[in-house]
Every structure is written in C-alpha cells, then in structure tokens.
Fold this sequence. Notes:
The longest helix is centred in the middle third of the chain and has 29 residues, at 153-181. By secondary structure, the protein is mainly alpha-helical. It has 2 domains: 26-193, no CATH class; 207-258, no CATH class. The protein is globular. The two termini are 32 Å apart. It has helices spanning 11-15, 18-25, 28-39, 43-59, 64-74, 77-88, 93-103, 106-118, 123-132, 135-147, 153-181, 194-203, 210-225, 233-253.
Amino acid sequence: MSPTPEPRPDPAQETADPITARALARTPRQAFWHGMWQSLPFLIVIVPFALLFGVVASEAGLDLAQVMGFSVLVLAGASQFTAVQLMSDNAPAIIVILSSLAVNLRMAMYSASLVPWLGNAAGRHKAWIAYVLIDQSYALSIQHYERHPRLSMPQRLAYFAGCVTPLCIPWMIATGVGAVIGNAMPEGIALDFALPITFLAMIAPMLRTPAHLAACFTAILSALLLAGLPSGLGLLIAAPLGMIAGAVVETRTTPKEI
C-alpha cells in the first residue's frame, strides 16, 4: 500500500453525528477495544469453520504440525480448504499453488481499497496488516473508516488491530483442536454451515449501490452456471465477470462532471 491523499469529509456533517463524535474522541486504546468488541460476533462462524478445516486436513493425511503450519503461515481459510482438497485429489503441486493464490486474489482488491485509509502508515504497520488481513477484518474496518473518515492514523490502526485479535488467534487454536479430534467428531455436527453464513454476514451490509448488486448477482449466477467446471475454475471465471458487471453499472450510473 503506497501513501495516497486521504479522503476529505464534510466536518460540519460529522460534527452533527454523535456516533462519529464518539469515534473521533476515542483514544487508540479505546479504538482497539471497540474493534475487538465489534468483531466478537464473527467467532460464531470463525470457530466452527476453523474446526472443520482441522478435521478435513487431518482426514486428508496432514499431521498436527502441517495443519498448524497452514493456519499460521497462510491464515486464509478459503485458500487452505482449496489446497487441502486439491492435495487430496492428488493434483500437481503447481495447480495447488496457483489455485490457492487465485482464491486469495480478493486480498489484492481489499488492499487496494484500504490504501486511502492506511496507505500513509509506516512500513512495519503495513507488514502486520498484510499478514492479518482477512475477510472479516476487511469488512469491519472499511465500513468503520468510511463511516468515520476523520479518524487519525493511530485510531485506524488500533481499530484494525482490535478487529483481528479475537479472530486470527482463535482461528489458529480451533484449527489445531479440529486436527486433534479428527474423526472423533460426530457426523451429525454440521460445521460446514460456517463459510456461507460468514460471507453473507459480511457482504450483505456492503451492498449499497446498483453497482454492488450487479457485481454480486452476476458473480453468483455465473458461479452457479459454471459449477460443473473442474478444480473450482467456475469461481475463478465468475469473480472477474462480477467485477466487470459492477464496473459497467457504476460507469453508467455515476453522474458525469460537466
């Protein structure tokens, strides 16, 4: 993330907003606890999702150290599931790597949209942000920054740190627990509900414009139509189709400057 000019809000409008006034008055320590508090509901889905990965990875033949290596080094649930599934199917190593990277390409888009808010942070801060950037931390932080654009950099960094602390650490711990219990978990416990619920909870509040809706439903329809393609190729095609649809709608609906 390179330094860029920060958004310029309307101070008069923000002053009249008591929620924004409270956000601006928080110390970095208070901002950290605020982010932590707001991220806690995601544990309802993070923990089962992590347990499920541990179980699936254990059943695929990975030992505890390998499972924990996935979660600590990669720290990306969707990519981890993709890699384990392809490894179970005896896919070539290059296919496993490329597919996992492709699934995680959304992180590049997340990073780009965070540049106006965190682009001026010091390099050491950008390093840990890049490591702990996940879907949930992005969804919470980008909405918070857009809602309160006058936050200082220490407040923004503290809020982001608060968001990731109760998400990333439990993810790693629950992954290890899932790997240990392995096949001992009863089949009647449906942990796979966690992934779709997580994304619904994150994405639904962000669908605020016709462009957002066009991108969302184009990607969904494309993914369903291409579901029969091998190795998740349908998702790799559906994602750019959704982005193209959103860009076209945004271009046509945005008023042109005279």
